[in-house]
Amino acid sequence: MQIGIGLPATIPGVTGAEILEWARRADSGPFSSLGIIDRLVYPNYEPLITLAAAAGVTQRIRLMSTILVAPLRNAGILAKQAASLDALSGGRLTLGLGVGGREDDFRAAPAGYKNRGRRFEQQLEWLRRIWSGQAPVEGVGPVGPQPGRTGGPEVLIGGYTPAAIQRLGRWGDGYISGGGGDPARVRQLYSIAEESWQANRRPGRPRFVGAIYCAVGQDVADQAAAYIRDYYSFAGQMAENMARSVPTSPEVIQERILAFAETGMDELILWPCVPGQEQLDRFADLVNGVAGQI
Asked: How far apart are the C-alpha atoms of 145 and 143, rounded to whole Å?
């Protein structure tokens, strides 16, 4: 199992310079990907723009949205943005996509909330069509540029319901779970993805990517909990439960990593809850510590 690291681009107060330095140093570390999550009504950095900036200061590490809320965006423009980022980065983009669940994000876009699932499926069809060089609609030319990866960036479908996950069989290359959760439950969700994949007679197997929130060091527990409470303030008691369960001990985080590895997961993204280069160094140390066990 590979291990990626999230960018601290969602943590309030983080500067652009800090994000880019994090990306540079992650590129030379043991991490497989740089992840980023998406919100509109929050002081975070826009995911695709941030990944484009990260692409300019990195050479090796993959760039991954974990996930991007697709229905907030216009399908044609999203296709062009993703293709451009993939081409500029040398085919390093993995596009994790989902429908989103924050109604205020859709009101601010503005975009329809109640029909977002249907629009998401239409978007997935358009993305594939545009990336393959076809015209999106009759009477217009193709939308470029050509992505760095033939057929377009790798697409991971996120979601927690069977209806959401089953989109994978038609349009995705893999499944991505949300932050944390019980490894056994996450494996059950992936089983739904595998069933959809097989039902659509897709060759091979879908990619399996997960994520956990964490911070390293007992001195950062309160700061990490405060961030989770703020980011998930709309979720009430769930936010408080998540805040209390953020692992900060290197040993506990390593145990979580090993537990997810046992599910057959291909890649796990560690989402940081505290910024700072010292945190990145601590993450690198604990990843190196389990490298021979996953």
From this structure: 7
Q: 120 with 97: CB under 8 angstroms?
A: yes
**What DSSP character marks residue 273?**
S
Q: Identify the domain containing residue 108 by its residue range.
A: 2-293
Mean of the pLDDT values across residues 36-59? 98
- Position 107 confidence tier, pLDDT thresholds 50, 70, 90: very high
Give the residue-averaged pLDDT of 10-26.
98
Maximum CA extent, the chain? 60
Rounded Cα distance between 101 and 112, Å, is 12
Closest to 285 measured CA to CA, from 258, 253, 260, 239: 253
The pair of three-digit structure tokens given for residue 157, joined into one six-digit string = 């479908």
- Condensed to tens digits (0 to 9), the pLDDT of residues 239-289 reads 899 999 999 999 999 999 999 999 999 999 999 999 999 999 999 999 999
How many domains would you assign to the chain? Answer: 1
Distance CA 217, CA 201 (A): 46
pLDDT at 155: 98
- In CATH, what number is assigned to the domain containing residue 274? 3.20.20.30
- CA distances (Å), origin 193, targets 47, 127, 144, 150, 154: 25, 20, 30, 23, 16
